[in-house]
């Protein structure tokens, strides 16, 4: 086993601890390794499996959005599945939206728009959909943000609109 693979195993064990700090530090540790040492398919399985502890899944989602190489399509598909599943926690779904933005997965635009415009969605999920759409920076994503800005949104979502770009500033 190479040093990088051994380190990957140790970081994965940290991620799998399920403890918030250890899980996120494990995810960050995986991101610091050469891409050939990290198996994204394991992270996809952890992200999708509700049997794993919540913070292990959040760490996996976080890492999936920032891995430098690999099959972005399967990672994005898994992240869309998490975001779409209203049975998942808002925290996990928000991280999935953020990760889709980090991947700049334009195939996620319609789902991100749907979740952003849905007033029954938790604010945290909608906030990360704003971030993700801004990161996509496509015509369709900008249109979704423009449409959302036109709804007269207030509060934390208006603040997030301003944070991603002053052009989206909405009086709160």
Please render the helix and strand layout as text.
Blueprint lengths: L2 H14 L3 H12 L8 H9 L5 H13 L5 H13 L5 H14 L5 H9 L5 H14 L2 H11 L6 H9 L8
Overview features:
172 residues; single chain; 69% helix; 10 helices
Write a brief caption for the model.
By secondary structure, this protein is mainly α. It has 10 helices and no strands.
What does this 3D model show about the protein?
The protein has 172 residues and is mainly alpha-helical. Helix content is 69%, strand content 0%. The protein has helices spanning 3-16, 20-31, 40-48, 54-66, 72-84, 90-103, 109-117, 123-136, 139-149, 156-164.
Structural class per helix/strand content? mainly alpha
* Series of H and E elements: HHHHHHHHHH
Given as residue ranges, the uncertain stretches (5+ residues, pLDDT < 50) are: none
Tell me about the largest β-sheet. Answer: none
Overall geometry: elongated
Beta-strand content estimate: under 5%
Compute the separation of the termini in Å.
56 Å
Average predicted local confidence, pLDDT = 91
- How large is the count of helical segments? 10
Report helical residue fraction: 55-70%
Radius of gyration, whole Å: 16 Å
- Count the strands? 0
């Amino acid at each position: 086993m190479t040093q990088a693979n051994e380190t990957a195993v140790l970081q994965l064990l940290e991620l799998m601890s399920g403890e918030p700090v250890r899980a996120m530090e494990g995810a960050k540790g995986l991101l610091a390794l050469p891409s050939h040492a990290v198996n994204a398919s394991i992270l996809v399985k952890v992200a999708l499996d509700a049997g794993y502890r919540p913070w292990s899944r959040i760490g996996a989602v976080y890492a999936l959005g920032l891995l430098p190489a690999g099959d972005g399509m399967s990672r994005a598909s898994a992240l869309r599945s998490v975001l779409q599943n209203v049975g998942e926690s808002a925290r996990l779904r928000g991280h999935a939206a953020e990760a889709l933005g980090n991947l700049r997965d334009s195939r996620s635009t319609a789902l991100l728009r749907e979740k952003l415009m849905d007033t029954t969605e938790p604010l945290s999920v909608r906030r990360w959909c704003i971030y993700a759409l801004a990161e996509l920076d496509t015509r369709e994503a900008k249109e979704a943000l423009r449409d959302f800005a036109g709804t007269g949104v207030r509060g934390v979502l208006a603040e997030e609109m301003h944070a991603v770009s002053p052009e989206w500033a909405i009086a709160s």
